[in-house]
């Protein structure tokens, strides 16, 4: 946790809130008990590769995932750090001009205030 002075001192320009921590320094964290829900999570491997995960939920085809389920998936893909993000009806992933998961909201996809945007190297906006 950082306060405003810490952020200025470390020159941190961008951040995201998350919780709980799923994997820290290569170890799956304790206390990941939870129910099944749609989930959104992010992780990183030791080589720096970022891992993004969404899990559908509240549907006949997918009830969702627990925090422990997310940690297991990230561990299988070699994550050394992984974090749960906002899930539920905010769980959507867009790839190549379409949503690739089924939004859990009965009202359909809703606007979300935060997004991770991944561009190919050299793409517009990818300095």
Task: Explain what the structure shows.
With 127 residues, the chain is α+β, with helices and mostly antiparallel strands. Helices cover 13% and strands 23% of the residues. The protein contains 2 helices and 7 strands, in the order αββββαβββ. The radius of gyration is 16 Å and the shape is globular.
Major β-sheet profile = 5 strands, antiparallel
Q: Nearest-angstrom radius of gyration?
A: 16 Å
Global structural class? alpha+beta
In whole angstroms, how far apart are the ends? 29 Å
**Overall residue-averaged pLDDT value:** 89
Enumerate how many helices there are, as a single number: 2
N-to-C SSE series? Answer: HEEEEHEEE
Helix fraction by DSSP (H/I, runs of at least 4): 10-25%
Strand content: 15-25%
